[in-house]
Amino acid sequence: MDQLSFIKMHGLGNDFVVLDGRSAPIPLSIAEARTLADRHFGIGCDQLIVMEPPTSEGADLFMRIRNPDGGEAEACGNATRCIASLVMNETGRDQVVIQTLAGHLPAETATTGEVTVDMGPANLGWQEIPLAEERDTLHLGIGAGPLQDPVGVNMGNPHAVFFVEDADTIDLATLGPRLEHDPLLPQRANISVLSVTGPDRLRQRVWERGAGITLACGSGACAGAVAAARRGLTGRRVETTMDGGVLTLEWREDGHVLMTGPVATSFRGKVERASLS
Ligand SMILES: N[C@H](CCC[C@H](N)C(=O)O)C(=O)O
């Protein structure tokens, strides 16, 4: 019987089922991918990650990212840390390069033992977010209830960042999906609510595109750090507390965003391929 080996990993509770398709491709239908990610009928995860051979020089592997709704994502910060850590453990190197649709993302072991990833440049043009029409990306002008007038940032994937007094009081389960599907956002977006809790300290919760509320969102934390700095609310280096823990972000002068945080492997297993369809 055809079995699929998998590794369950997470970054601050943002969890992943990781498949290794580097030596032999793992063709998965959208339905199979959705079943694997389903927390009732499958293994369950926020994103399904498939490791594939790199498609360009200089990368250790290509990381394919699928949300539980079956949609493919261009970036996943927490998974990039997890996969970088996996490759570092395999190779004994403390620097690797993970390729995603967002580009080549260098990663290295931080002094804290955590992993630092260069998530690439924050893209700030209205067509890069992307938006359905020209807008000032610092003030998108959309909203629902207490969430109004976000900042748009693209980290390879689209983000709309809303600033509020207290992120913990927001009904994100209701407002998140409404805003994810706002007509201004043709590729939808990850929806963040952010509060400034101290000098260069942020509290952030995220309704993820195609996934819902997660315990942490790495690319969302990058987008939040850029949005806060652009609005003059913080400097370019912040600590962001998400439900699952703390990420450190730095929006470098060259436009790239560095994200540092922990990685964990939960368990390894096998699943009967036939049971997925
Ligand atoms: N839901 C996201 C992908 C996963 C992002 C998140 N898990 C992260 O750590 O960046 C999207 O569709 O763009």
Automatic annotation (TrEMBL):
Keywords: Amino-acid biosynthesis, Cytoplasm, Isomerase, Lysine biosynthesis. GO terms for molecular function: diaminopimelate epimerase activity. Belongs to the diaminopimelate epimerase family. It is found in: Cytoplasm. The active site is at C76, C217. Catalyzes the stereoinversion of LL-2,6-diaminopimelate (L,L-DAP) to meso-diaminopimelate (meso-DAP), a precursor of L-lysine and an essential component of the bacterial peptidoglycan. Homodimer. Its EC number is 5.1.1.7. GO terms for biological process: lysine biosynthetic process via diaminopimelate. Pfam families: DAP_epimerase (PF01678). The record marks H159, E208 as: Could be important to modulate the pK values of the two catalytic cysteine residues. Its main location: cytoplasm. Pathway: Amino-acid biosynthesis; L-lysine biosynthesis via DAP pathway; DL-2,6-diaminopimelate from LL-2,6-diaminopimelate: step 1/1. It catalyses: (2S,6S)-2,6-diaminopimelate = meso-2,6-diaminopimelate. This is Diaminopimelate epimerase. Substrate binds at N14, Q47, N67, G77, N78, N157, N190, E208, R209, G218, S219. One of its GO terms (cellular component) is cytosol. It comes from the Bacteria. InterPro entries: DAP_epimerase_AS, DAP_epimerase_DapF.
